[in-house]
Amino acid sequence: MRASSEISMAGTDGTIRTDHHTAHPGHTAHPGHADRTTRTDHTNETGETDETGDTDDMDDMDDTPVMYVESSVAGAAKILVVGPMGVGKTTLIGTVSEIKPLSTEATMSQAGARLDTKVRPSKTTTTVALDFGRITLGGELVLYLFGTPGQQRFLPAWKDLARGALGALALVDTRDLEASFDAIGHLEDLDVPFSVAVNAFPDSTPHNEDDLRSALDLLPHTPLVICDAREHKSSVQALISLVSHLIETLTEAS
Q1: Which of 61, 121, 140, 230 is most exposed by smallest CB count within 10 Å?
Q2: Burial zone of 157 (CB within 10 Å; 0-12 exposed, 13-18 middle, 19+ buried)
Q3: Which candidate, 134, 176, 116, 187, places its Cα nearest to that of 16?
Q4: Distance of alpha carbon 50 from alpha carbon 124, whole angstroms
Q5: Assessment of whether the complete model's pTM goes beyond 0.85
Q6: Which residues of 52-90 are buried (b: 16+ CB within 10 A; e: fewer)?
Q7: How far apart (Å, rounded) are the C-alpha atoms in residues 196 and 83?
């Protein structure tokens, strides 16, 4: 997939541009890093995808091989990954990221329980600031992924993260579609182009596309795909669907 010049240059008020680094003294790029990815699958005891992030201390980041952006990269885009609490945002970013993902997971406290509805008893942590990861598509386009907090009380931070974003992937859980309405509504209010990815949980009931589109009140041109946030290929395909939609939208607008 080739990156368009519109994607690499758009959003000058905050969109991240391509930055080709050279190795600094004391830092060595990982040999063959173009073919390597760092994958983190997060499942609970029942096999469900949740938003449990990497619980390792941030100190071990110093031991992670440096992975610079390839010289072949022609463009970059800031992409949001949004959705309600527990829908799988942290999991998806950890699954696809070619660098060690940044996660701001915190244990759900008794004080927070008065404000946040725990989606499942097995979920004990939640994102309180953002998740961050990076993936290169086709060797030419880098996506910087920013996962947003799922709770309504973090909406101010959510809006800050949206600045400069070229698009968003909205994750949906069919077991509680209503919980996704706010996130999709925020994207529409901010005029951020988006696609929808239904995260297939083990106990989800399958629904046909027409029913899902109707329930979510999606416009006909909004992409809708099924994915499993724990699976690398499935999650990458969801992101490719979004990028294709963004390219089409920019092409039609030009």
Answers
A1: 121
A2: middle
A3: 134
A4: 10
A5: no
A6: bbbeeeeeeeeeeeebbbeeebbbbbbbbbbbbbbbbbb
A7: 10
Q: How far, rounded to the nearest angstrom, does the alpha carbon of residue 214 sit from its chain's CA centroid?
A: 24
* Whole-angstrom distance, CA of residue 42 vs CA of residue 215: 28
- What gap in Å lies between CA 117 and CA 53, rounded to an integer? 19
Cα(232)–Cα(155) distance, integer angstroms: 29
pLDDT digits (tens, 9 = 90+) for 160-208: 888 999 999 999 999 999 999 989 999 999 999 999 999 999 999 889 9
Contact by Cβ (8 Å): 160, 78: no
Q: Which of 178, 197, 213, 184 is nearest to 245 (CA)?
A: 197
Which among 103, 74, 56, 49 is positioned nearest to 226, based on CA atoms?
49
